[in-house]
Write a structure and sequence with these properties.
Blueprint: H1 3-19, H2 25-32, E1 67-68, H3 98-112, E2 124-137, E3 140-147, E4 165-169, E5 181-189, E6 193-195, E7 198-200, E8 202-211
Parallel strand pairs: 1-2, 4-8
Antiparallel strand pairs: 2-3, 2-5, 3-4, 5-8, 6-7
Length: 219
Amino acid sequence: MTLSIALTLRAPLAACMLAAGIWTAPTLAAAQTTKTTPQTTALPPNTPSITANRPAAPAPAVAGAPRTIKWEELVPPNWDPLAEFKDVNFGMLDDGDPRAMAMMKRLREIWDQAPTNPTLVGQAVRIPGFIVPLEDSKDGMKEFLLVPYFGACIHSPPPPANQIIHVLPKTPAKGFRSMDTVWISGTLSTVRTDSYMGTSSYRIDAVTVLPYEDSSTRR
C-alpha cells in the first residue's frame, strides 16, 4: 500500500477500531507521542481520549449531579464498524485502485451513520474532550464539536459520528481555542448534525464548559 492511501485509510480506521474496542490503546498512544502540532501548548497529563490517556476514575456521583461518562459508552456494545471489511487485504491496495476509492467512500458513510447508545439519551452527563470550533465570536464560542482525541476533524479525518458531540453552550464559552481540553456537562440527546468539520450523532446543550483538570493531579 502506498503512503498516501495508507494515511488516508489507516488514520480514520484507527479511530473506528478504537471506538469498536478492537484495537489496543497503546498503539495509538505511542503514535501520539511523535506528532507535531503547531499553535498548541503542553497538554495536562492523562489528557481526555478514548485511548490510554484518560482522567482518573471519577468520585461517586452526587445526587442530582451529572454522571461522568467515558467516550466508549457512546458506542453501542454490538456495533462493528469494520464488519464489511473483514476480508479486505489493505496491503494489496494502491492509490489508483478503484476498489480503494469505493472502500473509503463506503467507510465514510458507515462512520457518518454510526448508531447511538439509547441507554444514555436524556441523561445529565459530564464528559471531557477536545474542542473543534464551529461558531466563535468576541463573546466566546457559541457552538463547537467535542471530540475524544487530539487532532480529530482538524489534523485527521473525523471519527465516527457517535464519537463526536455537538455542543451548544448555555452561554458562549469564553477563553477557549481550537483543541483546548474541557469538561462539558448537560443533557445528552441524539440529534444528528452535519457540519463542515464532521457529522455528529449526539448533542449536549451544555450547562457548563470548564477547563480540563485531571483529579489525579490535584493536591
